[in-house]
Amino acid sequence: MLKTELCDLVGIxxxxxxxxxxxxxxxxxxAAVSEAGGLGIVSAASGDxxxxxxxxxxxxxxxxxxxxxxIMLRGSNIDEIAAMIAEKKPAVVTTGAGSPEKxxxxxxxxxxxxxxxxxxxxxxxxxxxxxxxxVIAEGGESGGHIGELTTMALVPQVCDAVSIPVxxxxxxxxxxxxxxxxxxxxxxxxxxxxxxxxxxxxxSRVYKDKLIKANDTSTVVTGRRLGHPVRSLKSKFSREYSxxxxxxxxxxxxxxxxxxxxxxxxxxxxxxxxxxxxxISGIVNKEQPAAEIIREIFEQAEALLTGGTKWVK
Amino acid sequence: MLKTELCDLVGIxxxxxxxxxxxxxxxxxxAAVSEAGGLGIVSAASGDxxxxxxxxxxxxxxxxxxxxxxIMLRGSNIDEIAAMIAEKKPAVVTTGAGSPEKxxxxxxxxxxxxxxxxxxxxxxxxxxxxxxxxVIAEGGESGGHIGELTTMALVPQVCDAVSIPVxxxxxxxxxxxxxxxxxxxxxxxxxxxxxxxxxxxxxSRVYKDKLIKANDTSTVVTGRRLGHPVRSLKSKFSREYSxxxxxxxxxxxxxxxxxxxxxxxxxxxxxxxxxxxxxISGIVNKEQPAAEIIREIFEQAEALLTGGTKWVK
Lengths: 313, 313
Prior knowledge:
2 copies of one chain form a homodimer.
Chain A: H1 5-10, E1 16-18, H2 27-35, E2 40-43, H3 49-62, E3 67-72, H4 78-88, E4 92-96, H5 101-109, E5 113-118, H6 121-129, E6 135-138, E7 144-145, H7 151-161, E8 166-169, H8 175-183, E9 189-191, H9 193-196, H10 205-213, E10 219-222, E11 230-233, H11 236-245, H12 251-258, H13 261-267, H14 290-306
Parallel strand pairs in A: 1-9, 2-3, 3-4, 4-5, 5-6, 6-8, 8-9
Antiparallel strand pairs in A: 7-11, 10-11
Helix pairs in contact in A: 2-3, 3-4, 6-7, 8-14
């Protein structure tokens, strides 16, 4: 079995995190991933403390294995959510959209591992200095909110910049990506897009079918003008957004245009949905139990890693 | 030593191509790379048949090993350049900006291996059907003209789409990238940015020093509006271009603004130069002979590939 230091750090069997996907990563999905030996992560993006706590409780009821929670450090009630997390003591908190420095002591003294997402080497260094236990180096090929650097370029540069463990994210959906991530210096992977097709993932049939049909060029980035680029599957929404993005429309109107689009994707509204997904969508073609996804990824990675000597003559 | 099927296909010792960089990849650089066991590639981007033939002759005088030439299939005298190439019979021609179908028979009957750059799985399939001997899957983290897909996402999807050998390009500058590329399914790599710091590369001191100082976030993409995005190091030129790109400036004026910027970079004009380089620039910090660059990359890759079993328990 494939083991890295990340397994020991977090107490998991396979070095894989399931990405905290806004409005998607609920307690049921997270529990399925954790129960299968990875780290399931509940998304705190709704901003509703009761709802997030509820999903964490659902996960805890379904598995006794470690669970994580992902919080975007932007919004009105982050303090409240952060305090709830400190109380609930998940194994891991992953953070996005800024530095978790403010909550570091509170979380760490609750025994929680703090693992921020870093989109550059400078951010990774900042998080290491602030006490992070590891960092997730996430490339811009991933779905959802993205940075500029790609996984191939970002991971080695983050590894050179910090001494804490690095988890690679972005463009990884099978054992090839997992093995490549280890070669780049990472000690584990975070996977989002492929878990959208987990049987335990509650998104609409429309969303899953769009993903199954997608190929390598099916995603597009919108939102660059407002400074928060987002990658999603090409759709009626993305076409319309792209059409108006660089017109004379005001920032407020453009912002308003996207309101509700994530929820619409989850419930299967093809007219208004923004269906977040990464560039690796083309190899994500089959609905499977989360446990089977994890097993397949690591069987393939293990075969590639043990076969790596075939090129050395 | 690390060997793959690409070595046999092209007749080289190490599975590495030096990217055909416009106005940079001359006969001297190509010869140094080929003499060291990789495939040196002369750029035909100048469009000047005499000049390109001259550089190919220089390379042939400096080494008896295989040499390649890179042609962008856009411009007024492509037929003429293509015919000259068929006559000179380099070991390999790599192509960009379109399909080489038109020249395929001419080149192949001259014994030249034809290896197009593909920015998507669909293009890779098209090139395979047209008779290409291999394809280069180049991710958008590379320097110069770029596509949308990243190396991590593109390489496995191209590998799934075609049966011919796949060479990975974009974001690769050391043995970590080379080993990762093999895990993704490639049988070799193409490297551009790191060869900018080859001692045999004739770009200005200013260009080399900018690259040495660069970190992971030092590059920027300009030209998206005109449909031909280009990645370069942040500079006076790129700042000014970005400032005007989405203003009311006409396409013609915007195009005109960039004329001469590549040449200016090569000669070291900090005010007007567009210094092409990839996102991996942050780990490219040392001027070295091309032979040392190649040796370092493959020593590191070999160590990683033979050590890959350490994770399997």
